Amino acid sequence: MKLLILDAGHCLSLALAREASRRTDTELVIEQGALISSARLESIAPDAVIIPPLAHPLSMAPADVTAHADAVDGCLKACQAQNVALVWCVSDQLYEEGLEVPIDEPVVPAPRDDSLRRLVQTGDRIRAGFQRHLIVRLGPLFALEGSHAWLNEIIDSLVVGKAVRAAEDVIFCPTSADAVAMALIGMLQQQACGANAWGAYHLAGTEPVSDFTFTSMIRTQLLTHLEGRGEQITLGEVQPLTHHHDAKLRRVLNCRRVLDVFGVHQKPWRLEVGRMLDTWCLTRENNRVSDKGASA
User: Fold this and answer.
1) Residue 44: left if φ>0, alpha if ψ -120 to 50, beta else—which one?
2) Burial, 59: exposed, middle or buried (Cβ in 10 Å; 0-12, 13-18, 19+)?
3) What pLDDT digit, counting tens, does each position of 120-162 carry?
4) All domains of the chain, ordered by start, with CATH?
C-alpha cells in the first residue's frame, strides 16, 4: 500500500513515517506542502492521500484556517479526478461549544466561529461529493517533534523554569500522534482489503481530562523521570486558566465506531506520555554524552 502524506513537518506526518518504517506493507511518499495537484497525484499513484490536522484552529489566524480549508478543497478535486482515497484529519475544536455527553460521529460540528465553519463546509463537500473518504476527528495531538506537537513545547518551557498556563475548565481527550499514525495505517490496510467502510470516525485518547490536569501530570512525570536519572531541576509551574465561568466545556469524542468497524482501541494518554518522556530523557542523556565527548 502506498500512502501520500502532505505537510512533511507536521507531528502526525513524522509519526506516520516512523510507523511505516517499522512495516513492510506500507510505502510512504511525503510532500513538503499542504496541496497536491491532479497531475502530481497521477504521477505518484498512491492508494490514499492523508492530510494532517490543524491542531488548534480556534487560536489560529482566520486567514490561516481558510488557507488550510482551500488546500483541502484542492486535494479533494485532485482525489476525485484520480479516484484516490482522501483521509482528512480534523481537530475536536470544530465542536466549538462541546457537549455534555460524549460526541458521536453522526454529530456534524456546528461552530459559531466563521473560520471553523469554513472547515465544516469543506467536510460537507467531501461527504457529499466523494464516497472514498475518511474524515478522522482527533483529540488534541501530542508528540515530541514536528509542528503542532504540543508536548515538546510544554517540556521545553518547564525545563527552563518557565510557567505554563493551562485551562482548568476545558475537558478533552489528549491523543498521541504515534497512536493516530498506527490507527490510520491499520484502517487504510483494511480498506485496501475490501472493508469499504468510508465515512467519519472519532479517534482520541482514553480518560477525559482538563488541559490543566494534563499539563500538571506531564510536570509530575517529567520530574519523576529526571530525578530517577539523578537530575535535580527546578521545573516551571503550571498555572490554571479559566475561560468558562458558568460550566466546564467538554469535548469528549466517542470512539466506539472506530473500534467496532476497524478494531482500533483508544490509547491511554498517560502511558503514551510516559513512553514519550522515556524517549525524551534518553535523547537528553545521549546528547549530553555526545557534548562531553566533543569537548574532551
Assistant:
1) alpha
2) exposed
3) 999 999 999 999 999 999 999 999 999 999 999 999 999 999 9
4) 2-141+176-205+252-267 (3.40.50.720)
Q: How far apart are CA 122 and CA 99, in angstroms?
A: 22
Quick: pLDDT tens for 35-57.
899 999 999 999 999 999 998 99
Instruction: Match 546528547 to its residue by C-alpha cell.
Output: 287
For CA atoms 189, 190, 194, 197, give the dihedral sign.
negative
Distances from the Cα of 158 to the Cα of 41, 128, 222, 229, angstroms: 43, 45, 9, 17
Q: Which amino acid is at 139?
A: G
Question: Phi and psi of 216, rounded to 5°?
Answer: -65, -40
